[in-house]
Amino acid sequence: MNRLNPDKLFVEYRPYVTETEPIMPRRYTLTHSDITADLFLTIGTYYAFDKINQMRDEVLAEWRIINGKYTLYGYVYVGGENIKKELLALRYNIFNRELPLALEAIVYGDRNFFKAHPNLLDAPIIIYFDSYYEEFNKVKYFKTPRGYK
Fold it and tell me: Do 145 and 111 meet the contact criterion of CB atoms below 8 Å apart?
């Protein structure tokens, strides 16, 4: 697993969100630069759609209540029918490989939030892989935030 370099992570808080509040709505938009390997985490009440580029390689996540429990619910866009299946397989594998680093960036980048709400360290992380093709259109469990501290 890749390890996060904190010097390469840049965090931005949008209006109505502080380092510790609110729990909901609290949404994460994680993007990156292929050139510098910098990671950019935007935390707000809405996703930072202005940070998303044409490659659609961002990770989106938000706090939800599922089955009566706080859950960190994430979303990645693998691709639609207009993209070759071989390329979608590659994107799917890259997302699977890089999600632990992305989750580590979210947990580290919002560490004061987790200090204020330590119970959320044990919340399940569920990631939805969105694809036109059934074999890449999946919902997967990615442990808890505690596993990415």
Answer: no
Tens-place pLDDT, residues 3-43: 899 999 999 999 999 999 999 999 999 999 989 999 999 99
Residue 1 lies in a domain: no
50-76 burial, b at 16+ Cβ within 10 Å, e below that, comes to eeeeeeebbbbbbbeeeeeebbbbbeb
49: its two tokens: 């759609």
In this predicted model, what pLDDT tens digit does every residue of 65-113 receive, in sequence order? Answer: 999 999 999 999 999 888 888 999 999 999 999 999 999 999 999 999 9
State the CB neighbour count (10 A cutoff) for residue 95. Answer: 19
**Count of domains forming the chain:** 1
Q: In which domain, by residue range, is 129 found?
A: 6-148
Tokens for 69?
Answer: 């429990």
Determine which helix (DSSP H) or strand (DSSP E) holds 42, and give its type and residue range: strand 39-44
